[in-house]
Design a protein that fits this description.
The complex is a heterodimer of chains A (241) and B (199).
Chain A: E1 2-15, E2 19-26, E3 30-36, E4 53-59, E5 68-75, H1 84-100, H2 108-122, H3 128-141, E6 160-163, E7 170-172, H4 173-176, E8 184-185, H5 188-192, H6 199-220, H7 228-240
Antiparallel strand pairs in A: 1-2, 1-4, 2-3, 4-5, 6-7, 6-8
Helix pairs in contact in A: 1-2, 1-7, 2-3, 3-6
Chain B: H1 6-15, H2 23-35, H3 37-54, E1 56-57, E2 64-65, H4 71-74, E3 82-86, H5 89-98, E4 104-107, H6 125-134, E5 139-142, H7 148-160, E6 167-170, H8 186-194
Parallel strand pairs in B: 3-4, 3-5, 5-6
Antiparallel strand pairs in B: 1-2
Helix pairs in contact in B: 1-2
The chains are: A alpha+beta (241), B alpha/beta (199).
Chain lengths: 241, 199
């Protein structure tokens, strides 16, 4: 069995004394692990860092085997390492991919958005709103998306400013009434797919996606805790955005 | 091997678990030790026994020594207000080989890693923060690996020490001695260019 393609490294761990097992997120095969022979060597280790984009050739005797990767670097994204916020973002993206994505499940749109997000982080283009959109898409693609098309109470499509934590459906200002303080805030930029640099809006968006990561996705994954890297990112955004 | 050699088999199996050794090389090593019983095997056994009894972590910095406080922490000449933070004891020993740094160390015992489930509580970061407060420290040098996990840990520590009035620095990144530009990745070249200095 063999295939070749491109992917982003999301995790690396040493395997034996000279090799490494890498976890990559690819366009065609989703999240896929494999052994890189000599991956712990002085020459290869700097190339196998989370966030690096690589060309891959995977070979194994059977499809279900772990298999071996041959890796060629395409884009290192190592400049993120000198950027405190960028490093927090990269850590959150990589750890959520490892936490949430099933192995070998194709997620082409999420792959494209992941590449776009990492390019923004690497290029030091404001990326916090794009990260919130990415988490929304992650929930959508894994089957835990929110319905933000109309108000769950009144059916209107305007002034949707809350989300029900029970149903994941949008609620309008009028529909919320006295229940408003029990609902999650829905920032406008998140519903409309816009960019935003408003700190409070971004934190509200992350509180919203975080709620559904915790209440819907985590139980489906055996109640594993949400990776700390996400909480560290939120603390960094609160402090520095 | 037959059952008469059970003790030797156990020794081979244990040796094979050491870094750099497999079953075949462990067998060769054990055979060599047995052939040099008086000058190698017996002293090695004595030395292993002694180290097993005495080796311990330094209560201050996490270095490995044979006393509660390691040689570095016990040396009053090294109280110069600088702490060098390293990931592992092997990194501390590498720094000591260079014999350039004259201050004291702090061994974290790892780095933050989402994959391995290592959070700040699993590392010796709280001890570092209390040392900075207690030991009249003026500079903390973060000598952590230039990996994503290493640098994430460095930034986390810098955040923790932000309000303590100490200077937090990190090792430079760039072209290694004897390195050729042609073989460097683009990130290293960029870091080296950004950290250029007048000649």
């Amino acid at each position: 069995m063999e295939w070749s393609g491109q992917g982003v490294i999301v995790g690396v761990r040493r395997f034996g004394e000279t090799s490494a097992i890498i976890d990559v997120f690819t366009q065609e095969k989703g999240r896929h692990a494999g052994v890189v022979r000599g991956g712990s060597s002085r020459k290869m280790a700097p190339l196998l860092q989370p966030g690096a984009q690589v060309a891959l050739e995977w070979r194994a005797r059977l499809e279900e085997h772990l298999g071996n990767f041959h890796v060629e670097p395409l884009q290192s994204r190592s400049m993120i390492m000198s950027d405190r916020m960028g490093l927090s973002g990269l850590g959150a993206v990589c750890s959520l991919i490892q936490f949430a994505f099933p192995e070998r499940m194709e997620l082409p749109e999420l792959y494209a958005r992941t590449i776009d997000l990492l390019d923004r982080i690497d290029g030091r283009v404001p990326w916090a709103a794009a990260y919130a959109h990415w988490e929304m898409l992650l929930l959508d693609d894994l089957g835990y998306g929110m319905d933000l098309s109309s108000c769950a109470v009144t059916g209107v499509t305007q002034e949707l400013i809350y989300v029900s934590p029970k149903t994941g459906r949008a609620v309008s200002k009028e529909g919320a009434g006295e229940w408003a303080d029990r609902l999650l805030v829905l920032p406008d930029f998140l519903r409309n797919g816009f960019d935003s640099d408003d700190k409070q809006e971004i934190l509200n968006a992350l509180q919203l996606t975080g709620y559904f990561l915790q209440s819907s996705l985590a139980p489906a994954l055996g109640n594993r805790p949400i990776p700390d890297a996400r909480a560290r990112l939120i603390r960094a955004l609160e402090k520095r955005l | 091997m037959n059952s008469n050699n059970k003790d030797i088999d156990i020794l081979i199996q244990l040796m094979a678990k050491l870094p750099g050794l497999g079953p075949r090389s462990a067998r060769r090593a054990v055979l060599h030790l047995i052939k040099k019983r008086d000058i190698l095997l017996s002293p090695l056994a004595d030395s292993l026994f002694t180290v097993a009894q005495t080796a311990r972590e330094c209560v201050t910095c996490g270095n490995i020594g044979t006393m509660d406080q390691c040689d570095v922490c016990a040396d009053p000449r090294r109280a110069i207000g600088q702490i060098c933070v390293v990931e592992d004891v092997s990194d501390l020993w590498a720094m000591e080989r260079a014999a350039v740094f004259k201050g004291r160390y702090h061994v974290l015992g790892g780095v933050l890693s989402a994959l391995d489930g290592v959070g700040p509580e699993e590392l010796r970061i709280p001890n570092l923060v209390s040392r900075v407060g207690d030991e009249n420290i003026t500079e903390v040098i973060l000598a952590l690996n230039a990996t994503v996990d290493g640098q994430t840990t460095a930034h986390y520590i810098a955040d923790q020490l932000e309000d303590m009035g100490v200077s937090v620095t990190s090792l430079a990144q760039g072209v290694p001695i004897g390195g050729e530009l042609d073989y460097l990745d683009d990130g290293t070249i960029t870091a080296a260019l950004n950290a250029r200095k007048a000649v």
